[in-house]
Fold these 3 entries.
Entry 1:
Amino acid sequence: MEQSKTTRMGDKLSVKKKELQALVREPFLLILIILIFLSLLLFSAYPVWQVLKATMVGEDGLDLTIISEQLTSSVFLHTLWNSLKLGMVAALFATIMGFIFAFAVTRTTMKGKKFFHLIALLPIISPPFVIALSVILLFGRNGIISNGLLGLENTNVYGFTSLVLIQILAFFPLAYLNLRGVLESIDPSVEDAALNLGASRWSVFKSITFPLAVPGVLSSLLLVFIKSIEDFGNPMVIAGDYKTLAVEAYLQITGMYDLRSGAFIAIALLLPALTAYFIQKYWVSKKSYVTVTGKPSQGNIKINEKYIVYPLFAFCLLITGIVLLFYGSVVWGAFVKLWGVDNSLTLDHFKYIFTVGFDSIKDTLILALASTPVIGILGMVIAYLLIRKQFIGKKLMEFFTIIPFAVPGTVVGIGYILAFNEKPLLLTGTAIILILAFVSRNVTVGIEAGTNSLRQVDRSIEEASTILGADSFKTFWKISLPLMKPALFSGLVYGFVKSMTSISAIIFLVSVSWNLITVSILSQVESSRMGAAAAYCIILILIILFVISIMEFFVNGGFKKRRES
Amino acid sequence: MKGKKLILLSFVFLVGMLLTACGSEKLTSSEGESSKSNKLSIYTAFPEQEAVTYIQEFEKETGIDVQFVRLSAGETLARLQAEKSNPQASVWYGGPSDTFVAAVNEGLIEAYQPEGIDQLPEQFLDKEEHWTPIYVGALGFATNQDWLKKEGLEAPKSWSDLLKPEFAGEVTMAHPSSSGTAYSIYATLVQLIGEDEAIDYLKKLDKNIRQYTKSGSAPAQQTGLGETGVGISFAHDILAPKHEGYPIELTFPEDGTGYEVGAVALIKNAPADQLENAKKFIDWSITKAAQDIYSESESFRLPINPEAITPEGATKLTELEIIDYDAVWAGENRDRLLEKFNKEVRGQDAAE
């Protein structure tokens, strides 16, 4: 591992040159890169640029008053700090939780791994407002647990603590997916060798497993941090007086009718997000994490020591309990007359949906199914290009992919209207604009997972393939993609779920011909029809779990298994 | 090569998108662009099932095919601002008049006054004749009945009732700088008792406030869920959860209350082929037939048409003690009043 690193450092320049030459030899690859670059420029960067421009240009030319006003406002700075604090705490704990889950599922002989895997995926499916609502109904003043079970009076669920807890629960699956991919890709023979040489489980973990997983840990921290500061639904319902930037941006736009200040506040979120992003990239790029070298390796010796497995099992069980508690109360809400008040069982809410609201379910499913494969494949291809190919504008491409992911959906939505509402780029009102928004907003998770996986693969495997005559496409499809299997799965799952459940960007892009299920849910919540909202969520969750299991089948069955895990 | 094909295919798809983005008309235009269409596209702030009730009736009467997108009023405004050059809908149906006033100021509304507008009470009309009022909602107090019973209290019946010590930490309203509803409360008080007195009142009320919520309907919902004793909201926002079955009692302040006027308007630069249908829709929206449906839709909005039926369970506008609320004044003084609120009522908390 060390040696390959030093030789590579020395040859870095000549390798770069060689690769640039190789690029010219492969015109298709070149065209592909240009195409992706242009798409990202047009569909990721340009819309956000449009919004930024709108904040800077007043009625008579350049006008920076809004920016200077905000930057010197103590409310803005305080809110910024609130967001950062929230993001850091949520990122830290969600990543720890995700790591423990991923480690338990990939490295031990723990029982019920399939079940825990499913549980860890469940919280990504968080339809707007509904989980926050179930927190209120469980732990609020009249909450089933706080008041009914524990007899507490006057509990207050609104504020920072509740918000952070909800976010940790909502975003730990992101860390889990990412880290599971990384841990699965680490060649187990390295760990096994250490064990055979007499190292303890702890020192194997401390000096091999964890250091190799560092890129995954850092990128999980990053993804959760970004999603936490960008989150709108949870703080809107549960934050109480705790202000965050994403919510303030939305309220400026829709409550104060001040599009320009609101848009600026939202775009300001890019700053911490990008800073975190580049810190992470810089850190990771300094080291090599290659373990998959193509030499034959055997399945690793799973941890079966009771003193390790039992605590892990207990932890997973505890989290499972919490997840099931929240989602279980949504199920409960869907089947009772009036969630929280009248507990007699009924099927009315489902009857209502099947008579009124089935179109939105169908539309949502069509759009999500159309965007998911694009999100998955595009994510892997971009990851491959970023890690393996040298080309001009690579950094810029990387930068473009993070933008729509890091700004609040409101800005993406408004930016898409500003950018694509006039000829020749007239897309508003079509399904294409929704699909494009889904893809550009959700591809980042796949890219992150993909790059983390590829970092562990020695490029000599791919070089061998090229030397044997395969072009980049064939190499990607036959060699790299199978090695990125878990990453592809993460990208697909995240892409699909978020396409099915996102709201903030979509609210500006839904049109008369395409109505989406989350918009219906929101409308139900707003008119206090919590039962119908809960019933929508149940249907949504069932559809998503069904599709995820199909994806699992295809991704894991479609490729030949490289090794038994 | 199966793999290669698949990758190529997905990029053909990408190229396709790029190309369509570059202007092929057929794929990109939204439905219904023939020169004279039987279609009408609407943005509505009414909740989905309520909007359906009204629109189906219109379709039955006229045979026009109406399609709608549901957005909150603030979102509609933002969306109209963004798609100014090429709006995707012709009519904006429902939402408080202050968002319409803001839209007029941004040049997003095409002035249109429907047939029969002279029948409507003058105090609710738009003096500049841009938008048309369609319903009125009064501010009221929602009180949780279970909580009242437990504490042995009576629901508040006046603004000063809210200051009583037994309501300490039990009153919830939205924050005036994030919600139009809460700003209406504030402006009502200023017009009712004077500016300094209103600030003084809100300072005292602040001690009884449990939470300033972000959205205007949240206080009513939280009252229903028992999260707070009393919530201040518009009557239609209070009656919605009450109607669903939440234990809420609705009262109106006897010393006078403010109201919101819901409106409908024509969107500027809207698809030309829909113009006639759009006007027909606005004409229809203030007829007795259209306004009678409020009583069936269970929304408890008060019809603006004096001949229309008042929904059962709602108080007639004429029987309510409403003040002569000046929406234009309220709009013009908004920034100043909000700054004063943040500084004097919320004090150092304002930065949090």
Entry 2:
Amino acid sequence: MWNKSIDQTINSVTCPGCGLSCDDLSITFAGDQLRSLVNGCEIARSFYETALDHSDPTPLLNGSPVTLDQALAACTTHLEQSNSSLFSGLATDVNGMRGILELADLCGATLDHMNGDAMFRNLRVLQDNGWFTTTFSEARNRADLVVLIGRQWLDRFPRLVERVLNPQDALFVQSKQRKIVILGPWTEESLPEDLASLNPQLIPLEMDAVADAIALVRGVIAGKPVDPNRIGKQTGELLISLANQLQQANYSVISWSAAEFDLPHAELSILGLVELVKALNEKRRSAALPLAGTLADITSNQVTTWQLGYPLRTRLQRGYPEHDPILNRWQGLISRGEVDLLVWISALSSQALPPDCEIPTIVLAHPGMRFKSLPTVYIPVGIPGVDHHGHWYRSDGVCPLPLNKLRRSKLPSVADLTNLLSRQLQTASGVSARDLQC
Amino acid sequence: MLIKLAGATVYDPANNIEGEVRDIYIRDDRIVSAPEAGETIHKTYSLNDKIIMAGAIDLHTHIGGGKVNIARTMLPEDQRGSHRERTDLTRSGGGHAAPSTLSAGYRYAEMGYTSCFEPAILPVNARQAHMEMADTPMLDTGGYAMLGNDDLLLQMMAEGAEQQTINDYVGWILKASQCIGIKVVNPGGINAFKFNQRALDVDDLHSHYQISPRDIVRNLSRALSELSVAHPLHVHASNLGVPGNYLSTLATMDAAEGFPIHLTHIQFHSYGTEGDRHFSSAAAAIAEAVNGRANITIDVGQIMFGQTVTVSGDVMAQHANHHHAHPNKWTCMDIECDAGCGVVPFRYRDKNFVNALQWAIGLELFLMVDDPWRIFLTTDHPNGAPFTSYPHLIKLLMDRSFRNDMLSQINPDAAAASQLQSLEREYSLYEIAIMTRAAPARILGMTDRGQLGPGAMADIAVYHPGGDPEKMFERPMLVFKAGQPIVEEGRISQPVRGKTQVVRPEFDEAIEKRIKPWFDRYHTTAMENFIISDDEMAEGIGSPINIHPCGLNP
């Protein structure tokens, strides 16, 4: 598998297009072009077409083409001169993240993922409270009631219906027996056909009303008196009905995408969902299924957590890890002028541009990246799962999957580049660490 | 490169050497016989009065895999106050009960350990466990794949599958997940909890599959024996932590029907119901059963007082215990029709009756089980205590007066309810070498580890002698890994990376005809991507494999 030769048709390909990480894709090439893509959604198609549609760009230094060695030398100079660097973006594979963390340790950098805001809506709940979660196959085979919060999950995770909610086969519950309840900014008319075919119960409400709605459901389950009129009589009664369904279900699953909770103190809305699941488990079985993983947020956070002991939003400036989920937010570090160098890593997306900022910026990114304003240094990198092998985490944080190499490529990986930069920095500063990543 | 370790006092139980002054020679990564006269010795260490043993082996320590990462994520307070600064040689990190991978590797090596085994690898998440262990430097690593709660095995058993089919599945799992053994956690219970069963004793039936934990233990222990896998079925028994559970533990021993089994962290499974508080020590009954049954090995899972975090595949037990979480937060997870995990932080208090008696029960077991080849020194890191407490534990075993001093400080009712005061046994250095080196190597089938004979891997620890075993084992003078000096005076002098230790029993590959349709119909990953290849271990995950032979178990 790892060293499988590059055939014209490749099966069981893992797609890093979203946190579902479907690994049933079958890709056929004609030369360097995509001829067919079986089992891929629109995100997958766009990912592979963008990945394949570029000429091999050269590194740029202050906008001018340079050799890779020249670009690396410039990176080394900037990293040496920096007193407080920020490594962000972090859309890469496991080995890319391993290389980034070693380099960050050498440089005393601070680390945050470009999706840090969404990720920490969940992580702050985990840090304060813990939670009870499940995984895709478990939900697919076992859930007899699925409560989906919000609306964007359908666009962000396009095959969720096919692979989890309505599979052809399931071990313990057949799809037609599965009840689906959707809470969010929908109308009956807005439901797409594949979702409507599941006959979901719709409880229309805006995202900023989710916390109150879930509080009402929790109140019913706790046996407290609740007033359905406070949230609107019709919605309130639907929520009371939902509470009753949840108490009768054998295995309920509550799912959301934290990215959609784009509102102040969103973690409190998510805390309500997590507490609801915990309360249900006192008598029945229930689990949360947070949807995430886009642009490797789960991947980069997993590797950071095992290597540093802390999740992202951790700084290494004082020679050891210090974590702060609020102060180490990348946007804040830049806007407060607390960093003097930005290293932006975006190997998976040509769209995830670095922010405009006044400090020098090193970009290790997708070869198809089109900048609005050119960074100080740009080194195009190989795309994990296309140009090189790698590993990648799904939304549920388990089952890290292998990413395939689909074509021969001269582009260096993020791991290659960061390992080289670490060697250069160690040599330059006389550090005698042996030729080891650890 | 030929190295001479001259004049140290050798404790090498695998070769029946107890405290003899000998010279040890290392050529490259191996221990060799004394060289011919005239051969150049490149480096000589004068070790007169020093004590030399093989590098220590921890056969049950939770150092990798998803549940440890959940603990790290959930407990930033565990990192604060125990950070480890970057040096020219080592990376930064930290953590007390759930250390970063790098810190865990460094700290283990600084205590003379050279191999560690993660006991609870979910096959679907084996990649993560191996990736974390690949990032745990200084050590060889390995793991036990969890079976017995996966829906495929339970389904096969419910259908009355032949033993041969189960053997093939077990062999396939070992290969696909790159493991050295098989573990079962709360047999069938993790799965039953998904069906809302809250308890599953050894002869209770799983509500869906209508099979019992006894059936699972029997089939899996037999499978490993028939596959000639050295390590016996590694069993986390039913009813962990429940008063009266010693009866389940005894029943689990019987369930193996004479096939070898290893009962892990048995302290948590040795509780009676006597006394006013209906919680008592059943260590005597458990020790008697172990002493009388040659097919049983155990490790203790000693608790130590203080803050830790419990991480376990046993979601049923962890969820039941979440009310004891300290600080008050906990995480549970159902995972991929495979198993699950639960993470509950916990503070053991010496003035608390139950915690104090748990401490005493662990020590009673150490002192009442006769054969040091069949009992292993563990705290079930971090569940009973972090592994950094091993030197303290060794002192408790070797020094009765110290032990009784500690006993006098715990909850007095617990002290009175324990036989510990009357147990006079003190472990010798030789016995410590057995239980931390020779015996774990033997029970894992690693014939070239845990010993200092010619041909053995040159994993070696050299200690300053002294009256205080805790100080001695805390800070070795020298540690060698595969012939290289890696620790000098308790500090890392040379960072190295280890390999993954695996076994590869023979099985019929046609079992994939049963497994692949299962993946295709029910799973959200492909069987092809579940399997971890040898190349992937070396080149992608970063820890090449080392295959130990099957069929050599004594």
Entry 3:
Amino acid sequence: MKKSLTTMALGLTLAAGPALADLTIPDLSYRTGPYAASGIPYSDGYQDYFTLINERDGGVGGERLNLIECETGYNTEKGVECYEATKGQGALLYQPLSTGITYQLIPKASADGIPIHTLGYGRTSAKNGKVFEWVFNYPANYWDGASVAVKHILDENDGDISDKTIALLYHNSAFGKEPIRTLEELSEKHGFTFTQLPIEPPGQEQKSQWLQIRRDQPDYVILYGWGVMNPVAIQEAANVRYPMDQMIGIWWAGSENDVAPAGARADGYKALAMHAVNADFPIYDDLQTYVVDKGLTAGAGDQLGSVLYNRGLYSAVLAVEAIRKAQELAGTSDITPAQMRDGMEALEMTEERMTELGLPGFGPSFKVTCENHGGDGLGAISQWDHERGTFELITDYMQSDTEVLDPLIEEDSLAYAEENNIDLRCQ
Amino acid sequence: MPDQVLFAIEVTLNGLMAGVLYALVALGFVLIFKASGIFNYAQGVMALFAALTLVGIMEGQVPFGHLINSIFGTDIHGFGWQVPALLAIVLTVLVMILFAWAVNWLVLRHLVGQEPIILFMATIGLAYFLEGLGDMMWGADIKTLDVGLPQGLNTWIDETTFDMFGYGFFIDNLDLSATVVAALLVAGLVLFSQYTKQGRALRAVADDHQAALSVGIGLNWIWVLTWSIAGFVALVAGIMWGAKSGVSFSLSLIALKALPVLMLGGFTSIPGAIVGGLIIGVGEKLFEFTVGGMIGGATETWFAYMLALVVLVFRPQGLFGEKIIERV
């Protein structure tokens, strides 16, 4: 509600005079509807970081950040409407937090020359910058996630999983189907048996699938879910007494929202992570001083430090760092979307830089190039500790299996290039 | 007994339990349609609103807390007390009665005599309003609902069936609770409609509005009563589904599960809602078990609608619905 009032006030201000800021970033959020519980913390983290930069630093390179929020309700059509409504306002970057919306925006944003950044979601083969000039998915993608999950399973089994069965329980949508090809390839490579269990969205009823899991007893269940599907899956796993530590969710199935309804029974549940999952970072002191204490939080201010708040924060951090790089390369603070793309293609996040930002150890180091829009593809495993009420990282960041993934990305992206008559770049 | 037969029996039992949960949602639709001819699009959102209110009361949350904090710059979130589940349920029922009264006073009484499609459109508006109201009152974060119902594998059934067949059946304690609650609910509704003055009045209005009015039955009062009962049924459905998945705004989507049940069972029959729910529950689970794996799975949603469509072809009024004949 606080956000709504702020938005209303901002709207009136904008209507009354010229824009107050030069670096415009739309936030295609979802604070209403069935996926609001996940959309709110992400958007809060995203917006609070931009507010922090404006309040503490006066913007980036002297230019204040102008955030335009547009409600999508996690609905693809509304997401496209939001894009069309905001792109003419000088939008530098879109981070739509929806694979469905991303797929629709890829051709549009490519034609309009506006970068899209899909952190850990979207079209995986967009990692190939030679084909997808305007789309980025660093620091890791869905296929990296599947590969890191299998690596963890390999580690737990001394490198031999040839006698194991891994089931993929997935949201029956473009998002959920993303890791299938990767897991098929990895199954061939490591010899494990791979089974698939689709769940029809939204996923409130999963009894059939969990009865099958109870009967077949796969050694591991990899969960690619979103929204209500996740807590139901974890509840049903607990109901059929499936071992929680043999269940590994993608990072979109690894938030407090997902484990809360199962209570203590979710203890030990694992999920992939591409960044830290708690609030033990100096940047939170600044957020408290410049955002919370001033009453400028995007939402109710009750989401700070949650997994999805951190993800929104991380998305915003990477956007701001790309803006800095773009300003440096262009020699001007008032950058264009094309210059923003250049900045993103030259982005390098090092531990030293993360420490300067007040985020030591928050995420792995990675580098983006013209050819590689997906970063290094590192992921870690987090585990839910019910007693402490937090996820904890239980592994170091692991490199995904590039030997398997790179050819798949090449194949899929080149097919896209051929279908759309795209000339390869970065040659 | 062959494993496949045992699995099929287990799937059937779980399908029956799932069917009861579908029927709980469908019942609310039937009650309102039967009494007023309105297809209440807001029924799913009513379940969500009721569950949100229940959790909010149980946790001592201040309604409209975010709004109050935004306007007055305060930082209040809770009253600092917890309310026992039973008392919270009673208070939530009172809220749903108040809601029923408000719907009738502010919306329905102004639309008496309008075409059914107008009333349907009004309920669409009502659904979106109620969703926004729920958001403002209680917030959009996911909430855990625990009214003390047991959850998880029923050990007795598991062990008994294991001793008998060498394979323990999985039955969820929550589903068993839902079955008992649904049985009590239906029995209560039948007793109410058969043996109370208000129940008979409700049936009279359902049969013929004009005739009921002519013998002095107040239509407004009956509509408030009907929406109150539907609100109570929504609360029960909200508790059962909310205990499974947590209370979040996706709870409103449970209405999608009720539609094929209504199409199959008929929009005007309480037994139809129950039987329809059971048929859909068992049908979709058995289809997924036997055929799903061969065609890529995730068949349950479309199979339920397909089954309902097949019934519609042969019995447009549903298995238990009343055949409406209009003479010109």
